Amino acid sequence: MVSARDEILGRIRAVDRPAPSPVSRDYERTRHAGDPVELLAERITDYQATVYRTAARELPYRIAERLDGRGRIVVPPDVPREWCVPEVPWLADAPPLTVAELDSADGVLSGCAIAIAETGTIVLDAGRGQGRRALTLVPDHHLCIVHADQIVVSVPEAIERLDPTAPLTFISGPSATSDIELDRVEGVHGPRTLEVLLVT
Amino acid sequence: MGRNPVTWLGSPTFPDAARDALGDTQLRGNLRKATTTIRGKRESAVAELGDWEELRRAGESVKDDVLANLDTYLERLEAAVTDRGGVVHWARDAEEANRIVLDLVQAEDTDEVVKVKSMATAEIGLNEALADGGVNAIETDLAEVIVQLGDDRPSHILVPAIHRNRAEIKEIFAQMPEPPTSDDPHALAEAARKYLRRKFLSAKVAISGANFGVADTGSIVVVESEGNGRMCLTLPETLITVMGVEKVLPRWQDLEVFLQLLPRSSTAERMNPYTSTWSGVTPGDGPQKFHLVLLDNGRTSTLADEVGRQALRCIRCSACLNVCPVYERTGGQAYGSVYPGPIGAILAPQLAGDLHDEQAASLPYASSLCGACYEVCPVRINIPEVLTHLRAEVVEAKGKRTPEAMAMSAAAWVFGDRRRYEAAQKAGSLTRFLARDGTLSSLPWPGSKWTDTRDAPVVPKESFRAWWRRNRG
Ligand code: SF4
Predict the structure, then answer these.
(1) Interval B212-221: pLDDT, tens
(2) Keyword Iron-sulfur on this protein (chain B) (predicted)?
């Protein structure tokens, strides 16, 4: 008996297909933005997320300001040490937290891989300071740190810089739905609050 | 080989179903409101990009490259996914895909799975097949929850419950353990969140579709809004993804085109809230078992049609539905397929692959050929061209017949057999002929031949899903 694989490939090969024409790529690969940091802040804010700008030396103070009193905060094991300010009761993911522990946490702090200014998107690649995907998914509040040198303007620039073999999550605002009368409503299953600290 | 479930068995032909829907003022009101809103938003989202036309041409040419080299890219995708610890399965048709998925689920010793909205699994009737095998598939997309709990059928690609307004949704959600407190969309979303949270946290197996599968890296891409996708793709131990073969993209770089085209065309956003990509299995992060089911189900035969094959470029954005005057007036259910609107009118009959099927054959007539769909399509599918082409094929297959004649012969087919008649009636497709006193009367010929002898009593209403479970296969 012919396997499904061979039959499907056989059906494709039996078709008289046109010779492939070259792929047209005359769209803009990079785009110019006067102030990419400002553009990113504006576009993230459009999604009903909150953006705070801070200087690098003030970052620990800002983290404390955002998270103090919020409860127990999940943190990937490899974030820079100065992020783990003493005011906050941290839940480090080492050893890995259970799903129940993540569910009972009050928030999560993470870094990111890159951010796309034009679309207001933060991309996580499970790399340094970000942890495995569940960490930034289950808790209801996500505080994400973005450094200015992680910002690109356009989607093509982002795709070029990302590692396709890593599990990637593109985040544009808090979770939302357009399923009720095609209106965007924030807050369904992912973190319902997204806060971004932009470090410049 | 069974019948292709891409069109719903027992559905009325388009002209008949449309006439029926036209009488439903609530439906028309809901639809008009939703599509008008989204049309305006899409225009501004698109206008923001100065290179939109260039992106459309790129989208078109990448997809044409895919179709020209489909065998090569599929083999490449298979190799990449396998290399990264995934298992690839191939399914010739719906029945085979359903069996593969059911076997995989049963091997994990569970009778409940969470699902993230996927057109491919809706197309093959996976939920019903799983139910037959004793597995409960829980839809997790808000719109799908509305459809599932409302015992209803989808009516839009992206927003399957677009025909429901907030008040109706509140009614449907009243059966949840913690019903919504009001019909405010926030309250409705909150109710759905509570309802599904336990399911997400405890599910062992998730089933998803795929928006794209990148051949050279094995990356599968799911574009979504609510985070239910992320839950399904991240928390369970086993992930099964069903992907139509035409969803493969050659290169990672191609995503830079589609991640711009898709969100702006579908929800009219610069970017949708969440996009996930993964390649095989990542140790210590997410599902440790990953299965990719590559689905044909009529795609290779569609590929063989020189004009019709462009329908395989479709990225399921639903922009063509939102601009279609026919869709706006009839709603999606009149098309009798999971693929409604202009894309449904060209894709469903081709996937069904049977122009002798009266219902499928009536779909290419579900258009006024105004061309609005072609203008908005992000991958430049010339829908009017394909519609005209398919109409010619219908006429060729069936002899010279007008659409009315076809609608009529469909009625003949349904009425010609007591069992089919009952099935169709329970599916709600005969309501157009219902007299006010609840009996069927004055049917057009040849139905009239039957009703002349006596009034047909109306069988008590049975839900579509109940009927489907009993009658399919
Ligand atoms: S045919 Fe074009 S516009 Fe319609 S859903 Fe497909 S990609 Fe979108």
Answers:
(1) 999 999 999 9
(2) yes
